[in-house]
Amino acid sequence: MKKELFGICPYVTSQKILTGKWSIYILYLLSRGPVRFNELQRRLPEEMTHATLSRQLKQLEEEGLIIRHEYEQIPPKVEYSLSEIGEKFETVLDALENWGNDYIQWLQKTKSNE
Amino acid sequence: MKKELFGICPYVTSQKILTGKWSIYILYLLSRGPVRFNELQRRLPEEMTHATLSRQLKQLEEEGLIIRHEYEQIPPKVEYSLSEIGEKFETVLDALENWGNDYIQWLQKTKSNE
DNA sequence: CAGGATCCCCACAGATACTG
DNA sequence: CAGTATCTGTGGGGATCCTG
């Protein structure tokens, strides 16, 4: 029998959500307010294509973290924003930002010592 | 020119560290104190083989998050523990645990409504 | 503008066998 | 006990082309 811990263990569950290569960055960008599709892509590193962005957004939407709001107009306008449970993720983002910066500093100290 | 954000942006850098399928769970287990290799495997979900665990540990060690301490004895004994920068990650783990539990609750509420 | 459809490709997890 | 070596399969990202 396989132990399926998704939906049971908070760590395994979180890890699953964060699998996407850009998930954290996307959530961070959306945490600062709703953003349109193209604008989102512009703010992401260049190597990410819109096809990839599209997939990641759809996944995050299916997981319930973000909301897709489509304005019925020509030309099309679609805004993405955090859902309620997505907004709660901001505490994780804050912790990640702090730790990430610490880690970057540590990296530089280490590199300069060799 | 490619924007390489690893080592610059805290979010991209964090994401990179967390790529491994079990990284968060491993860091959590180690946050409770040093653990030996086999014990670590026993506490992880069954589907993970020791080959996979070995690779993940080596990666985390190379990234500087964990420390491998080998006791010179027969039979061998190796303990893994968090490094200094690894211990700082615990604030992220706490945030993840809280959010993960919230998300699990949210999942169940959502599921029961359909 | 905001995507969908395809194809390709590879990193990485899993399985198995072997070792000091 | 604590690994390494090797093979294999697959999911997911990148690239390119097409569309309402």
Automatic annotation (TrEMBL), chains A, B:
Record InterPro entries: ArsR-like_HTH, HTH_HxlR, WH-like_DNA-bd_sf, WH_DNA-bd_sf
Keyword Transport in record: no
Record's keyword terms, sorted: DNA-binding, Transcription, Transcription regulation
Family annotation (CDD domains): HTH_ARSR (cd00090)
Keyword DNA-binding listed: yes
UniProt domain HTH hxlR-type: residue ranges: 9-108
Gene Ontology MF terms in the entry: DNA binding
PANTHER family to which the protein is assigned, alphabetical: TRANSCRIPTIONAL REGULATOR, TRANSCRIPTIONAL REGULATOR, MARR FAMILY
The protein's name in its UniProt record: Transcriptional regulator
